[in-house]
């Protein structure tokens, strides 16, 4: 039994080292670019206004697919801070999504 557990552990560690870490999906890239386009230039530096603008645009783009509308909301809550920080630091809008590893 110890041998089997040891082999499973070795396979898990080897797999983690050999396979590259998971990259963002094309949908994450789409959402990031949509967020950058609606965020640049920032609206009154108020995050909730920018998030509302993004959500409206995202829902318009993904109209009729309810679970994707929820995905827009989740994305806005989890990924807006890094996007805003990149834009404020002077990163060009077309480079933001690559900088935060979304594309």
UniProtKB/TrEMBL annotation:
> What keywords are assigned to this protein?
Disulfide bond, Signal
Q: Which InterPro entries match?
A: SapB_2, Saposin-like, SaposinB_dom
User: Could you identify this protein by its name?
Assistant: Saposin B-type domain-containing protein
Query: Is Disulfide bond a UniProt keyword of this protein?
Result: yes
Q: Which organism is it from?
A: Caenorhabditis elegans
Q: Where is the signal peptide?
A: 1-16
Q: Does the entry feature the keyword Signal, yes or no?
A: yes
In terms of SMART domains, this protein maps to: SapB
List the gene name: spp-9
- Chain ranges of the Saposin B-type domain: 25-103
Instruction: Quote the Pfam families the UniProt record gives.
Output: SapB_2 (PF03489)
């Amino acid at each position: 039994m110890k041998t089997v557990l040891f082999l499973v552990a070795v396979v898990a560690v080897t797999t983690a080292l050999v396979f590259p870490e998971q990259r963002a999906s094309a949908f994450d890239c789409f959402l990031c670019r949509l967020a950058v386009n609606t965020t640049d230039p920032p609206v009154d530096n108020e995050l909730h206004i920018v998030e509302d603008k993004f959500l409206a645009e995202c829902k318009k783009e993904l109209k009729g697919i309810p679970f994707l509308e929820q995905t827009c909301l989740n994305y806005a809550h989890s990924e807006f801070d890094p996007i805003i920080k990149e834009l404020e630091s002077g990163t060009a809008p077309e480079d933001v999504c690559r900088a935060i590893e979304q594309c």
